[in-house]
Amino acid sequence: MIIYKATYGNKDVTSILNRLVKNNSLKIKISNDLFGDTNPGVVKYLEIESDIGYRKVVENSYLNLPETTNTKLGIFYTNNNVKNVVNESLKSLEKFTDVDILTCVWESIPNNNFYEIQALTKTSTHLNIIIQILQLLYIAQQTGKYKYVSFLEHDVLYPDGYFDYPDFEDGACVNMNYIGICEHGFQKKTMQTKPLHQITMIFDQSILHFENLIKEAIKYTNIIVEPNCNMKTWLCPNPAIHINHGKHFTSHYLLYGEAKHDTDTYWGNSSELIQRLF
């Protein structure tokens, strides 16, 4: 995508927008924080002339160019506590083209190819996770017409076929084909837990779910964030991998057994992954 000319109020912001183009698309919140207050006290508009046409958008709204036709959304949230793990997780998502992916981070991630926003709060609690999720859901609500949303955590590697879940019209579905990895090799799960990092929900229902959790999370801080609803199960053709690095955003690492196998048909030899992850 090429921005030929862009103005915010009476300010030329062409060069700013061209720097923000990622993967031939532009996703931004139009605000004074990004461009400066070019005309205090007056509602401003961003006007853009690009190789895909002309757009005029009011301040304090979100812009998504080109407008998405994807019905599937993935939201990725992280506290950046293990940078190499976060980077590998993001890389595993770059192969997907039929899913829009948004990210919420505690610290900006260099070379993050996805739309990125800063977390409003930074505490190691489930309340914080809920807030980060809602930040992304509210943006997505304004920028696309999504039917499904998948919750992508920063200590998981996502394989080919992960978003090929069966269609459903209510509740959620969960991929049950996932394994773990630690410094000693791959790990099989010992319980059939349904963690959030493998769950996809109906988009509109997901917003209601996490809004309803806010009061409970404020009161108790750490709660169960997974939805208690009609949950269908499916098996991705290839296993997702939960990375058990000892510095966790969530607590599901307890469900894995000792490392007992060193190769996986899809992921290959565990030693190569271990070298990158640990």
Question: Could you please describe the fold and organization of this structure?
Answer:
The protein is globular and about 65 Å long. It folds into 2 domains: 3-63, no CATH class; 72-277, Alpha-Beta Complex (Spore Coat Polysaccharide Biosynthesis Protein SpsA, Chain A), CATH 3.90.550.10. Helix content is 24%, strand content 29%. Strands 9-8-7-10-15-12-16 form a 7-stranded mixed beta sheet, with helices on both faces. Strands 2-1-4-5 form a 4-stranded antiparallel beta sheet. Helix 4 packs antiparallel against helix 5 (203-220). The protein is built from 6 helices and 19 strands. With 278 residues, the chain is α/β, with parallel strands linked by helices. The chain has helices at 14-20, 32-35, 83-93, 126-143, 203-220, 270-277, and strands spanning 3-8, 11-12, 26-29, 45-50, 53-58, 62-65, 72-77, 100-105, 115-118, 148-153, 156-157, 172-175, 178-182, 185-187, 199-202, 231-234, 240-243, 263-264, 268-269. The two termini are 37 Å apart. A hairpin with a 3-residue loop joins strand 18 (263-264) and strand 19 (268-269).
